[in-house]
Amino acid sequence: MLLEVTLSGVTLGGMYALVAMGLTLQYGVARIMNLSYGELLIAAAFAAFWFYSGLALSPLLGLLIVPPLAFAVSYAIYHVLLQPLVRRARTRDALEVDSILATFGLLFVIQGVMLALFGGAYFSYSFLSFPLHIAGATVAANRLLALVLAVVIGLGLYLALTRTRLGTAVRAVAVDPVAAQLVAIDVRTASALAFALGGALVAAAGVLVSMFLTFNANLGVVFTLKALVVVIMGGVGNLLGALMAGLILGLVENYVAVFVDPGLTLAATYAIFLLVLLVRPQGLLGRTSR
Amino acid sequence: MIARLSLAAVAVAALACVPFLFEAYGLSLAINLISYTVLATAWSLFSGPTRYVSLATVAFFGIGAYTTAVFAEILPWPAVLAIAAGIGIVVAAIVGLSTLRLSGVYFVIFSFGLAELVRQLVTWWEVNKSRTLGRYVFTDITAAQIYWQLLALAVLVFVAGFLIGRSRLGLALRAIGDDETVARHSGIDTTRAKVALFALSTLFMTLTGAIMAPRWTYIDPAIAFNPVVSFTVLIMALLGGVHRLWGPVMGVVPLALLFEFLLARFPNHFSIMVGLVFILIVYAIPRGIAGLVERRA
Fold first, then answer.
1. pTM, whole model, 2 decimals?
2. A89 in reach of chain B (CB within 8 A)
């Protein structure tokens, strides 16, 4: 029992980590506080659902199609919607307030479109839903697959950011945008790239989540909130921190849902958030306090 | 000064006559307008000077509404309002003390999910403890009485805003909004000032919810904690302009009428349209109507 709960907690935590990695790219590098972030996850989940039940395409194929699409959409959103705000903002705080407001509006637009298309009902589809037995515990195959894929994607991102020239440039912008310019890094391109990459990541997470969770058009806000909490908990801009915090949140939530009450999972999220705020507001692996 | 004061008194007296002049539809529109006036003005009371975007309006509004739903039948009305105010202040203190000593982002994130958290907690409590999801609100409070209570609340918000603007607290808050580090170095206890103002601002939101609850005869967590309320209040305040006390009203009147129209004509695409209107405002009129008026002058 405990092992089963832990396993499914790790799966959920892996999703949170993946989602938070994307958000930490958007917020840590592009300095955009994106409140419509979770909506993209739900949109990707709907896309995967539609591919599977409408076109009979495997979600694995969806994983190859949807994230590049989300990359393009996010890139367009950054250029059309957010770049004017970046140019207008005099200080970082002003950009933060403006981006919060603009993406809050975007949240309602995307959510409204999804509600108009799909209504408020819950959706799910059964893909690889047979049980697997691992060390005496039973896990659904789709969960395990989602976890493995999340690990692969997360690892790929980590290597891309730490081992390539472009990745190093992106990380440099996260540390200090002004100093990055001094060493001939194109901050604008790096920011747009990081924002779009964040969109692709959350779309990938959306496809994975759709394989094993039921979802509806209103769920994006909850994912955004959890991603934000994980990002703060791990330390803004810190990928390993996001991974750790995501796993902790997934595990705690699953334990609370199974052993206490499923209606209290968000309360558990907030309890963790409060604890972080009171004890270590710079995050588990954060270096400087802001 | 005396001229402006008497002008305000005449305006309030004229507004108090509205229930005698209009039929049911006109009165419900007036209630709508005045409740949003209180909410938007209370919102900018805190978020205007400090520039901390609060997304939690409906959390407090819903707390007030739910308090009425639970206690209206067993307690006298003033006691209901007092309980609502008490709960609202406690929640505001928890939020404020845990986030407002840090940078603004933490506050925004906390407020972003607060309504959802309170909604889930209320749902959990109702399902597991009181075993009723959804309550009927039966009171003998008429629409006209609701209107007058809201009008009184609106007067209080403006008086509070006026007094704060001329007090040491108001000066401290403007300093925080300009530069928090400088404010702290000039000896301002920034956390205490922010928490105090946040609690005051949410107090008005909680009371609005409590007073508005008898308008619905049936209430459940999804109705009381509808996130669209937080969103509309934010839009109205921004359109009007948050750096002037009279700013938000300028946004409330056109937008409340527009939303009334949109809800009637496009009920299924309402949030898309509201979202687009909002984005338009953020880009085109960042300082609100009040800012436009001032630039013209």
1. 0.87
2. no
